[in-house]
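User:
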Amino acid sequence: MENLRTNTPSFPVSNSNVFNSKNNTEQMFEYAIEQANIGNETKAMEIAREALITAKQNNLYLAIYIHSFMAALCMERKDFGSARIHIYNATNKLNTNHFSYNTDKIYLDALLALIEKKDGVAKQLHFDALAA
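Assistant: Predicted structure:
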């Protein structure tokens, strides 16, 4: 694809753009966290989705942390199915050679256990309400 104003390619032509993408992705992710911290979960989820897309396109390990963040947001919304999917995707992207593999694996396992616990409580409350 060409940029119509300059007739030059509009796609990256050097590896330096990969580093810019990493910084931009990190900034988007940080902004998503800020939005969640001020209570704007919907905006946080939208921004995190965009950050996740660029993290995946650039094969960034950051995608694991974005998936974890999105799983936590989904859990707060009681969307336990989506939360599990994000944990599954994060777990599958883990690299056993990465310096934080053990910490990341422990965190993801703990987050999944919390999701399962909250989902179980929600299902029990729903069942109790139906039984009453």
